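Dear Dr. H.,

I hope your travels went smoothly. While you were away I took the liberty of generating a structure for the chain from your last submission, since the lab meeting agenda had it listed for discussion. I wanted you to have the full record in hand beforehand rather than looking at slides cold. The sequence, exactly as received, is reproduced here:
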Amino acid sequence: MPDEPIRVLLADDHPVYRDGLAMLLDSNPGLEVVGTAGTGFEAVERAAELQPDIVVMDVGMPGLDGIEATRRVVADSPHIGVVVLTMSEEDATLFAAMRAGARGYLLKGANQAEIVRAIVAASHGDVIFGPSVARRVAEFFTGPTPPSRGRSDDPAFPRLTPREREILDLVAAGRSNAHIAEVLFLSPKTVRNHVSNVFTKLHVADRAEAIIRARDAGLGR
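The corresponding predicted structure, in token form, is as follows:
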């Protein structure tokens, strides 16, 4: 008997794109689109109801975004693979999706063959990225390895001052600027300035990316 088709749920808040993609995927004999969802909440509900093999998930959806929806789908049904298909090229969004449990990350410029390949790979338990995304992931993990924590003669992020490292440690622990100001007896403006300097020295775009870099270096534990 031939293999059963991979059952797919599509979650995207743009009906024209969602319906067009559903038609494209349904034309592939190895895939079956079993349902669609227009919000993150609906994606979680329909995944629980339909138990697809794969959810193709947009990120920017109303009510509940695709990152949190991915986290809930994977928590409720770990056997379901989630492939994120989004316009967002930000590293912070990419790593947030992977931390939420996504098995794939594609940009919406991907063609039908790339999307099908990602769905098939994810259904086999593999993790797959679109070409441009894969390059950024490779660069992230092949960059300079942070030194081991605890070596005062060779600390991670040597360009940071002791105060900036202290603040980055608290940022990585999930503390807000207001909380950091209270703990370190600094003014909120001073903390904001320190955080801005940290972002510049780490070459990161936002707080989420700084947290990823800091935790990979052992901070915020």
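Two observations you may find useful: Residues 188-202 form the longest helix (15 residues). The chain has two domains: 6-141, 162-216.

With kind regards,
E. W.
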